[in-house]
Design brief:
about 500 residues; alpha/beta; binds nicotinamide-adenine-dinucleotide
């Protein structure tokens, strides 16, 4: 980073709050906790921010409950909620470059990817700004003997209450708005807890939220780690948890939800297959398959980590994906030329390397990569070589476990049924890709793949209008589209008994 870039980064960090945002106020944690956020490209501390404790969670829940009761929010008109969301989208768009720079500092991702993620966040807010005025119930004509003239039934779609939104570090600003926007559109109040690794963009978002005329307590932001997450997701004042993160923590959250039977929406890990048939357009399929696993250094829940290539093209796919990997420009995310940034932390890099070593030990053939990046200028960051394995078997850990790093396995297959069996041989079910020019194969695969999202002749694309979520241990519930409106509301069924209207003599 040049000295001009460094001082610009310092200015952006300086303008980003570091406290808890509760009830419309910036406050210190009661127990005084703080935590450092690290720039994964340099290993240096970017900022010290507040670390919320359980007593801060109590305060935030009380503020969110009070906001829920306040007429300013509970009686807010749909058009007002639309206006707030639109205004937030405009404010975020106005600071797009600062947000992208901050996301890159916090997460390490290439700046161009960070820009796209901020754009996605703006799109999330705009898309859900369109919903408050379109949330409707039904009128139902009862068939009871009392008859249609005596009874009337209808449904009201109401907010759930206080929503805890707990998000991971790999796409912070996008994940935050994916939950915040529909929750607010439906009239809930929200406590947003970013990951301890990447709290900065969410704190800066709170600064923008503070500029809106929203009643205090409608949105609260609690930077913090697992302890804050645990206190929040087990709190009896929280009526719904919207969680994105690892499967292990998702399971813990589901168990904790039993206390007050809160609603849970969970988006978890994946081990997604990307299947390339010999008749595919390989000029598109091979680079796309490489991007699907190396994008954001493989730290994408839908990463296409298991590539299956029909045997006649297997060697070509292995060679093509490896060549793509070797050409990637590795460097700090802030450098516009960078295509592959670091992974999030030293701990995560060690975890990934341990899985790489296990693959070597189990007999997988290492085609390229397989080690930390050995460059003096990158020595302080958490850089990893993009890695490709061939000759793997479905029993190997590298094929079974989510690596969440830039590590692909490429396996040959002989026919449709055998690749379906292999692709579905996973506890996860988040996403899958199919590459073929045969319409029948595409249809057959689309139906047979056990995954919440299937891409045909493309990969990784999604947007706010299309539902997203997992099968199996990738979670349940759906985000985006109308499905989010459904998740963030509950239905009240109402029966009205109607008596004869009074006659003129009454
Ligand atoms: P993580 O589960 O460790 O943490 C996620 C969030 O939960 C963080 O905010 C963390 O502080 C909090 N947390 C940790 N322990 C908790 C507990 N016991 N109770 C409540 N909250 C707790 O996940 P991560 O390492 O931040 O993110 C990586 C994981 O997220 C990967 O498994 C990835 O696949 C998954 N992910 C899934 C999606 C999806 O949409 N399905 C998207 C992105 C990431």
């Amino acid at each position: 980073m040049s000295s001009a870039e460094a001082s610009e980064s310092a200015r952006i960090v300086e303008a980003t709050p570091a406290n808890l945002y509760i009830g419309g106020e910036w406050v210190d944690p009661i127990a005084g906790g703080s935590m450092a956020t690290i720039d994964p490209s340099s290993g240096e501390v970017t900022a010290e921010v507040a670390d919320a404790g359980p007593e801060d969670v109590d305060r935030a829940v009380a503020a969110a409950e009070a906001a829920l009761r306040s007429p300013a929010w509970s009686r807010s008109r749909p058009a007002e909620r639309e206006a707030w969301l639109r205004e937030l989208a405009d404010l975020l768009e106005g600071e797009r470059d600062e947000f992208a720079a901050l996301e890159t500092l916090d997460n390490g991702m290439p700046i161009r990817l960070a820009e796209r993620l901020v754009d996605r966040a703006v799109e999330n807010l705009r898309y859900y700004a369109g919903w408050p005025t379109k949330i409707v119930g039904d009128t139902i004509e009862p068939s009871t003997p009392a008859g249609r003239d005596r009874l009337w039934a209808f449904t009201l779609r109401e907010p759930i209450g206080v929503v805890a939104a707990v998000i991971p570090w790999n796409a912070s600003i996008t994940s935050a708005t994916t939950k915040l926007a529909p929750a607010l559109a439906c009239g809930n109040t929200v406590i947003l807890k970013p990951s301890e690794n990447t709290p900065l963009t969410v704190l800066r978002l709170a600064r923008l939220i503070d500029r809106l005329s929203l009643p205090p307590g409608v949105v609260n932001v609690l930077p913090g780690g697992p302890a804050a997450g645990r206190a929040l997701t087990s709190h009896d004042g929280v009526r719904m948890v919207a969680f994105t993160g690892s499967t292990a923590v998702g399971q813990e959250i589901v168990r904790a939800s039993a206390g007050n039977l809160k609603r849970v929406l969970i988006e978890l890990g994946g081990k997604s297959p990307n299947v390339i048939f010999a008749d595919a357009d390989l000029e598109r399929a091979i680079p796309s398959a490489a991007r699907a696993i190396f994008g954001n250094s493989g730290q994408v829940c839908t990463a296409g980590s298991r590539i299956y290539a029909e045997r006649s093209i297997h060697a070509q796919v292995v060679e093509g994906v490896a060549a793509f990997a070797e050409r990637l420009r590795i460097g700090p995310g802030s450098d516009r030329g960078t295509q592959l940034g670091p992974v999030i932390s030293d701990r995560q890099r060690s975890r990934i390397l341990e899985l790489v070593e296990s693959a070597k030990g189990e007999g997988a053939s290492l085609v390229t990569g397989g080690a930390a990046v050995d460059r003096e200028d990158l020595a302080a960051g958490y850089f990893l070589q993009p890695t490709v394995f061939a000759d793997v078997s479905s029993e190997m850990r590298v094929v079974k476990e989510e690596v969440f790093g830039p590590v692909a396995t490429i396996t040959p297959f002989d026919d449709v049924e055998s690749v379906i069996a292999e692709a579905n041989d996973t506890v996860y079910g988040l996403a899958a890709g199919v590459w073929t020019t045969n319409l029948n194969t595409a249809h057959h695969m689309t139906r047979a793949l056990h995954a919440g999202n299937v891409w045909v002749n493309t990969y990784l694309i999604n947007e706010a209008s299309v539902p997203f979520g997992g099968y199996g241990m990738s979670g349940y519930g759906r985000e985006y589209g109308y499905e989010s409106i459904d998740q963030y509301t509950q239905i009240k069924s109402v029966w009205h008994s109607i008596t004869e209207p009074a006659g003129p003599d009454a």
